[in-house]
Amino acid sequence: MSLNLTGITLTYPDGDSRLTALDDVTLDVPKGSLTAVVGPSGSGKSSLLAVAATLITPDTGTVTIDGTATTGMTRGELAELRRHKIGIVFQQPNLLPSLTAVEQLQVMAQIDGRSPARARGRALELLDAVGLVDQAGRRPHQLSGGQRQRVNIARALMNDPTVLLVDEPTSALDHERGAAVIDLITRLTHQKATATVLVTHDRTHLTAVDQIAEVNDGRLRLPAETAG
């Protein structure tokens, strides 16, 4: 398993008591597969994604990334793990206005110490994979919403992550563009052999996912029927 959550419980302070965001959650996401996590607002989806991304440490339980358990890691070690093993696609692309599409990706590799030439080659390869190599020189304001989200996805793959975590990628897109983005994530998951978790409130585009996990009141359930 490339991503494994075992017995995850997460609580937050709530006055004199604590509010349970995740309640004994266990989830396995194999390499090269896409798991969609669905549920109503406030159900715990975002908390699950944050724990999987090692951005929040759970009260109990274990997060294992590509065979490495994160329990006891320092903040610096977790940052290093994220940089090399985890790609995160945020709900909003948050692209830098002054950078072109290819430069958005190059920055990620240069932070990791790669040479500019290697970084550019990798960036163009990924832009080609998401169908935007012909838009490499355009800045965010020159791209459509769907194109910006595709740059966002390509950027998350820049450092060859083992785990890809995607947060509500279609929330700002119309139905057609949303379907295209989900299809792209599905294709890239299989091509790049990532363990992908897609958090979404929209079930209409999930016909091709490998597994659907439903979160409600912090508890996770895997329905008997999932697409495959």
UniProtKB/TrEMBL annotation:
Give a yes or no for keyword Nucleotide-binding in this entry. yes
Q: Which domain of life is it from?
A: Bacteria
UniProt keyword terms in alphabetical order: ATP-binding, Nucleotide-binding, Transport
Report the GO molecular function annotations: ATP binding; ATP hydrolysis activity; transmembrane transporter activity
* SMART domains, alphabetized: AAA (SM00382)
Please report a single Pfam family linked to this protein: ABC_tran
**Where do the ABC transporter domain residues begin and end?**
3-227
- State what protein this is by name: ABC transporter ATP-binding protein
